[in-house]
Amino acid sequence: STSWARTHEDFLQCLSLHSPNTTSISKLIYTPNNSSYLSILQFSIQNLRFTEPSTPKPLVIITPLHESQIQATICCSKNHGLQIRVRSGGHDYEGLSYVSEVPFVIVDLRNLRSITINAETNTAWVESGALIGELYYRIAEKSKTLAFPASVCPTVGVGGHFSGGGYGALLRKYGLAADNVIDARIIDINGNILDRKSMGEDLFWAIRGGGGASFGVILSWKVKLVVVPSTVTVFTLDRTLEHNATNLVHKWQYIAHKFPQELFIRAFVRRVNSSQDGKKKTIQATFQSLYLGGVDKLIPLMQESFPELGLTKQDCTEMSWIKSILYFHGFTNGEPLEVLLNRTQTSVLYFKAKSDYVKEPIPVTGWEKIWKKFYEEEAETAQMIFSPYGGKMDEISESSIPFPHRVGNIYQIQHLVYWLEEGEEASKRHISWIRRHYSYMAPYVSKFPRAAYMNYRDLDVGVNNKLGNTSYAQASIWGSKYFNNNFDRLVQVKSKVDPGNFFRNEQSIPSKEW
Ligand code: FDA
User: Fold this and answer.
1) Residue 33: C-alpha distances to residues 36, 58, 193, 237, 283 (Å)
2) From ligand 1's centre to the CA of 477, what distance in Å?
3) For 362-421, what is the HEC assignment?
4) Rounded to the nearest whole angstrom, what is the distance from the C-alpha of residue 91 to the centroid of ligand 1?
5) Cβ(235)–Cβ(311) under 8 Å?
6) From the CB of residue 401, how many other CB atoms can be counted at a distance below 10 Å?
7) For 105-149, what is each residue's pLDDT tens digit?
8) Which UniProt keywords apply (predicted)?
9) pLDDT at 509 over 70
10) Catalytic residue at 456?
């Protein structure tokens, strides 16, 4: 409407007034009139559900080169009643970094992605717009025995990933990415740039797992690098129902969280064809592992604790930690390490995902019932991914950072369904399947609250009001699932640092006074 066009104009004028170097900011601003607007918008979108013509689009996208341009954007958005969405890697499962139903501006941090590794102090400064694969690559450039415990997928952005927890195959040895953050720089609601010392321990606590988007714009993180052996061992083994999959998954639940911290074995299940004509189906469990050591130690360890899997030396490959990153991402054909620097995701799909935490092993009869759900038509591309906890995760207290899912959680489940067909119909069918599946899983997973992982964002677990105030009670519906008892402290921090609730979205921490 004309009034929004007006705001839009005023906003752009405000930006140029607040930017010391006007010519440079104008090149970093994209509006729908700009021919590259759509490609800039779609560049890092990971979920095709949010690329539809009907998906709400930003009035403006800004791709800052300087921190002052973010300060200007915060100031002008505030003055003109626009919401801002900050995007680092664009991997948000519900598109919250680039979709909003109220008039909004995207601050896209793709240009702010420098990485400085200090191999003497084993630390690194990483700007939020860097991808985790770029960080891994830069670490490996400096050292064969340093690493960082974060995402399995290298295209995830550091900005969202660290602020929501962040885990990968080093989880049992070193915990989450957020557990290994030791400093950060953030722009607050008043445009001030703060570091750990000037932001104080409360805000520094909140942004390590509580989601950055509620508190400001995180510019960069300082992280502690961790030590890995120069040789690690990986394997991937598939077992169908005809080859004992049910019992293997069942047994895995009792042992995967108790293995030595050096051993991480995750499991996936999905439906596959068991006859060439595709008429017969079965369930396949895949066991995929990273062991921080050589194969000669791994084999006896497996023979003692998980002999049923039948792991042999031939199933295993020894490699460097950085190669294991490629391996876990499916690059197993000798691709160069430089693929980690590639910001474009190889295949982007429509998907919907959910998460759960398991405290007691699911009985065999439970698994047999769950497999039946996977034979339903819509479950053709459905998966459950099980990530073992225990080890270091048990040693870190529930309130150390906002991420609360520690001792007592034996593994995490990610439920996932993806599809390729365009249009409402396909989307409805698959989303409805995963919702039914999620309800069906209720007896087997954590309860009161039914816990969820914030980085696997799921708006089905509860949302704020899109317009107007959201009560504490309403926000705690989703807040307690992601943060359990830490939700209250997050609300306190939010009320202090952003009482007017400027930094908000469908699942942002509410401020008390607002
Ligand atoms: P994106 O840019 O979409 O941001 C996510 C949220 O953080 C948004 O609310 C955004 O506004 C906010 N935000 C981003 N940058 C910010 C900043 N600088 N300051 C303030 N707020 C900011 N997770 C995991 O733990 N382990 C894994 O192995 C994987 N693997 C994986 C694979 C794939 C293909 C996807 C799509 C996702 C994952 N994830 C994951 C989940 C991932 O950790 C999660 O989506 C992160 O939030 C992504 O961070 P991005 O910066 O990419 O997201």
Assistant:
1) 9, 12, 32, 51, 50
2) 22
3) CCHHHHHHHHHHHCCHHHHHEEEEEEECCCHHHHCCCCCCCCCCCCCCCEEEEEEEEECC
4) 5
5) yes
6) 23
7) 999 999 999 999 998 999 999 999 999 999 999 999 999 999 999
8) Disulfide bond, FAD, Flavoprotein, Glycoprotein, Signal
9) yes
10) yes
- Banded pLDDT at 467 (limits 50, 70, 90): confident
Residue 110 one-letter amino acid = R
- Write down the pTM of the prediction: 0.97
Residue ID of nearest Cα to ligand 1 atom 41 = 455
The amino acid sitting at 423 is: G
- Tell me whether the omega of the peptide bond preceding residue 449 falls within 30 degrees of 0, making it cis: yes
Residues in a beta bridge with 384 = 269, 415
Sign of the alpha-carbon dihedral angle for 326, 329, 335, 339: negative
Take residue 128 and report the two structure tokens written for it: 């939020």
Tens digit of pLDDT for each residue in 137-151? 999 999 999 999 999
Residue in the block written with tokens 């722009």 = 187
Residues near ligand 1 with C-beta < 6 Å? 46, 85-93, 96-97, 109, 128, 151-153, 156-157, 159-161, 163-168, 212-213, 217-218, 455, 505
**CA–CA separation, 277 vs 61, rounded Å?**
49
> How far is 178 from 162, CA to CA, in rounded Å?
5
Q: Is the dihedral of CA 23, 27, 29, 35 positive or negative?
A: positive
Q: Which amino acid is at 182?
A: I
Mutation probe of ligand 1 site: the residue of 51, 71, 85, 87 with most atoms within 8 A of C-beta = 87
pLDDT tens column, 328-364: 999 999 999 999 998 876 679 999 999 999 999 999 9
Tell me the CB-side half-sphere exposure of residue 372, using CA atoms within 13 A: 8
For 246, the enclosing helix (H) or strand (E) is helix 245-255
Question: Is 232:290 a contact under the CB 8 Å cutoff?
Answer: yes
Q: At what angle do helices 486-497 and 196-206 cross, to 10 degrees?
A: 140
The total of other beta-carbon atoms located within 10 Å of residue 314's CB is 8
Q: What 3-state DSSP class applies to 107?
A: strand
Q: Where does the pLDDT of residue 2 fall: very low under 50, low under 70, confident under 90, or very high at 90 and above? A: low
CB 289 within 8 A of CB 344: no
What token pair was written down for 121?
A: 């102090």
| Angstrom distance (rounded) from CA 170 to CA 150 | 7
Lookup result for tokens 């998954």: 249
Q: What percent of the chain has pLDDT over 90?
A: 90
Q: Which tokens sit at 461?
A: 């677990």
